[in-house]
Fold:
Amino acid sequence: MDFKLSKTHLLMQEMFRKFAETEIKPLAEDMDEAEEYSPELLAKLQRYGFFGIPYSREYGGVGSDTLAYTLAMEEVSKVDASTGITLSVHSSLCCYGLDSYGTEDQKRKWLTPLIDGSKFGCFGLTEPNAGSDAAGQQTKAVLSEDGSEYIINGTKIFTTNSGFADTCLLFAMTDKSLGNKGITAFAVDLHSEGVSVGKNIRRMGIRAASNCEVAYENVHVPVENRIGKEGQGFKIAMQCLDAGRIGIAAQSVGIAQGALNEAIKYIKERKQFNKRISSFQNSQFKCAELQTMIDAARLLTWRAAVAKDNREPISSHAAMAKLFASDVANKVTRDCVQLMGGYGFSREYPVERAMRDAKITEIYEGTSEVMKMVIAGGMKVK
Ligand SMILES: Cc1cc2nc3c(=O)[nH]c(=O)nc-3n(C[C@H](O)[C@H](O)[C@H](O)COP(=O)(O)OP(=O)(O)OC[C@H]3O[C@@H](n4cnc5c(N)ncnc54)[C@H](O)[C@@H]3O)c2cc1C
Structure:
């Protein structure tokens, strides 16, 4: 067992950190205020290869691994959690499903432009009436009489990246009588006739990310766009979410570490009672507790990432990492605001944004309650 990052991973971590500090951090507050992501920044992230980190060079990726991807997720989320989720949904939900279940032709057509950075991806599973219970899909895909295409009708909600995405890994019912075994996955061109993307849903946190309702009305999808077999969609969605949860755990670690770094900088300068706030033992103990929690969350995240790279089962590891790290992100950011007092609460410092951003990590890609179901399922507690 080795808890140290390799030289290559350390170099990548340093590169991600520099990029985040110089390119993302200066824009993060304005993007949050505007509730809009900067198209220039998106283009830069594409140019620097952020969207294809764990994917093969053969398809235009960086050819690295999940561990490197978690390092990128942590570094970008330290300064801006909206960048974290933009990257995560594209990479570990949309691309991962296409990479794992696409045929060679499908990968060339759909995956390559997503990981070489020429297109953006999103993931359409959640519906207004199917959230935690994703098997309750109402979106339907009906095969045409000649068997050449599916006609898709339905509405998805909270589709991250949908405001600018080109491709959606979409899930729809092909046979409702089969329950979750009747769900099928499709690669859908979001510029197709019948697709309408609604307004950005106004939110408490990760406000710069794009997150819209997407309606599909008689959308004709060629049969060759089906990913995997008919009825395999639920399995594909769950595997994508297992992978995605590692990214959300890393995002949580990043949010927490970013907030703690800011708080420490502040308390080393701020004086009350003629003493720096950092000189009070209460502040030192608090920082020690928070850093210990963050390190534990990071180790769980890396364990899940390394298990995925070693092709071991990851459901429980990923769920534990997300459950723990998202809780840590919420506790740490709340305590960092407290350490900084009124200034922490003010929008002059990025810690209040981190506290707002942290909440969603306990909800998306499976709530904390759903994570406990996954973990208990793996333990065979029932
Ligand atoms: C900002 C944002 C981005 C998102 N991005 C995407 C995306 O890109 N693609 C996508 O498909 N989805 C996305 N989602 C959807 C997200 O994954 C769901 O919101 C999440 O899975 C929870 O579903 P729900 O909101 O319908 O809550 P519900 O399922 O209605 O749950 C409400 C509460 O009940 C609890 N609960 C539900 N069932 C049980 C149970 N059996 N036992 C105990 N407690 C239970 C939940 O834990 C939760 O606390 C996003 C959501 C948000 C807010």
